[in-house]
């Protein structure tokens, strides 16, 4: 399968978190990611693998622009990410869907409002957003749970709300950090089916996981990290 | 459904994070102080203007009762002096009216004849005038109150300056209170802000939501403070009326325009301070 262009391109990227004692803006801590150079083609599905602490979450934070690299060149959605052009980043972020490891649902919003949030932030009217939100909640198997608060939902249901929120804008890039961590094997397979369906519809998908079983059941290219460096890609 | 609609309009949950009691209460107290300071400034300005205007006329000539027949002669002498702009006899009826609060009704009391002078310049030394007058009307006494009036006017100016300084201080404290409230709101909604940020919200989106909420709370608090100030200012105005030269209707003497401007001004302070505080905080996010 040929991929015409790069969705994500890392060139000699490094990431160093600031030390808690350093002045603001001064990165003095250890380098969490070092010399990352790879390309994820448009429309690809990639597993992100590695032991705990290998840097998977940091890498995903760079991909969805929650963090900027401290060195190297990062290109996402065809745009080179630069700290001095921060005003461009919100528009880029709205084209990226994110499934967080800890869901990060707003506890005082219903499932419907959590899912509708990215559409409202993008300026969609309530009347045009409502059918999309209803449809995506039905797609993830949460029809009838629209009014439930996150704490009224099981872990698996919360995970599906998080996924619905990530895909409701039909993003070009979808990154998921341990999306099956709170799910049983049946729910995990169902979730992966959703993600592969998204990929089939054209979304570039990157999934970080520990689950070898999941990777075995859904074969795809993988990016393996160890101590903040890419040790395998392909 | 109503709950959903409420949170759809307030997805950051700021109605809960930014209490509608504490901040408006503090702003109301500051608006009350600001209203008092403004009214004090306006009152001091009015008194200063009145006293300064009166300083030039604050010269009186007294003729002893036995010399009252020489009133016309004294008036003629005074009106001939170039330093005198006008000289008018104070009528017996007005003298009684002026003295009634102090002496009551005493028709048998012999009263001096009094002439009210207006000099062309309040800085003129009245002593030479007194000498020239006494040459024509022996026993005539000239009293100049200008220096006292000038001092009172200077005091009023100082009071006005202090009132304006208090106003500036209140505005500064208001900015600090709003900044602290905004930081408390940010701390309470930090995770939500980070989620908004990661989902593509702009600084303008997030800061605008805080600014609208805080601006409304500040304006509401100032409205309450201004309303509370009205009866207090009316009472003060009533008490100050004698110093302002007579009968003043308390409600008409209030600085209504200043009071009306307090809520929008507080709203603007709240909005601008929240905008700055939130945008400053958001700079730590990429």
Automatic annotation (TrEMBL), chain B:
Transmembrane segments: 161-181, 214-236, 256-274
Location of the protein in the cell: Cell membrane
GO biological process: cell division
Membrane topology: Multi-pass membrane protein
Boundaries of every ABC3 transporter permease C-terminal domain copy: 165-282
Domain of life, per lineage: Bacteria
InterPro entries: ABC3_permease_C (IPR003838), FtsX (IPR004513)
First-listed, main subcellular location of the protein, grouped into a coarse class: membrane
UniProt keyword annotations, A-Z: Cell cycle, Cell division, Cell membrane, Membrane, Transmembrane, Transmembrane helix
Protein name as catalogued: Cell division protein FtsX
Organism (species): Teichococcus aerophilus
